[in-house]
Amino acid sequence: MAETTAQTRPGGRSAKVRAAVHRAVEELVAEGPAEALTIPVVAARAGVHATTVYRRWGSVAQLLNDVATSRFSGDVVVPDTGSLAGDLERWVGDVATDLADPDVLALMRATIGSGPGGGSACTGDRHAQLGAIIEREQARGGEVPSVGTAVDTLLGPLYYRAIFSAEPASGEWARGLVATLLAAIQCRVPPGGPTSR
Amino acid sequence: MAETTAQTRPGGRSAKVRAAVHRAVEELVAEGPAEALTIPVVAARAGVHATTVYRRWGSVAQLLNDVATSRFSGDVVVPDTGSLAGDLERWVGDVATDLADPDVLALMRATIGSGPGGGSACTGDRHAQLGAIIEREQARGGEVPSVGTAVDTLLGPLYYRAIFSAEPASGEWARGLVATLLAAIQCRVPPGGPTSR
């Protein structure tokens, strides 16, 4: 009896429900506008009771945050090419490729639209990855930018282009952002900024 | 008879309906999660027939795009301080102040969440303003960045921080972005980027 087996292994059952609900959210978001996304609709698509979804996630916003956190964690690998320039170029290329996927953009838009915490659910892992790349270069003894400057120079334009602009983020353009960041290390802005004209 | 007067001045009546519907959307978005936003709900709040809203805007996405375009146009004035550094510093400060308003963020999130065109409805006027600032400096005979570089260096981090990060965008941090942009003009990235290590 499959049902009994499932009930005696709550971890396995719970993981199956989670996977079915996550898949349902990703499908529904990819199919249409976020206004149609409600917990009963998600539950019906996932083949589970709406009360199960309410009990576990509480709201569409929390559910979307969970799906986005899971979808955008570990999907891009932190490279180890032996140099900061190499690592960053590989990594921004992978992020740009991810952001060119219409389903990724649809999930990001829906998660942002669901409430204040949505944006950071999409990018929390990117910050961690950028921090790991910079830390590795420090361990190599190289000169590094601060994580904050790297976020501003790399993630800022990458996500701005994905969400706020219709321009596609090409790999070449993304590698240009890395060049800008590395040039800024070699040519530090003097305190107080450059001389005003 | 006010009704007759209104009917003989369709422009005036139409403008009133538009203002009431826009105000209703801004209020509803500021109050709660975007999932509650439907055309009947907006119409009820605005005191107009739902069919009027359907006929004029077609969908919640189009309505939000219209409200965002209108809200984010002309709200920040293009300054004329006499220098590129001065103009940009004043302008990014005003943009950062705007982006610190919770109602602005709620409208942006809802508009982004409504579909693919939402993001550019929020920032179209910012591109135009940045272009105008750069054009004025060119007319003064000064050296200028490309609009694309300025978008990447200024709008990228400003909007990334507003939507994807929990960190507030202080005026000091925003002026630092201007310093970075101006330093990059004085210290051009060599073609092909800086020397890789």
From TrEMBL, chains A, B:
Coiled-coil annotated spans: none
Presence of keyword Membrane: no
Pfam families on file: TetR_C_11, TetR_N
Keywords: DNA-binding, Transcription, Transcription regulation
PROSITE patterns per the UniProt record, alphabetical: HTH_TETR_2 (PS50977)
Record-annotated DNA-binding residue ranges: 38-57
Residues in HTH tetR-type domain copies: 15-75
PANTHER family: HTH-TYPE TRANSCRIPTIONAL REGULATOR RUTR, TETR-FAMILY TRANSCRIPTIONAL REGULATOR
The protein's name: TetR/AcrR family transcriptional regulator
Source organism: Streptomyces kaempferi
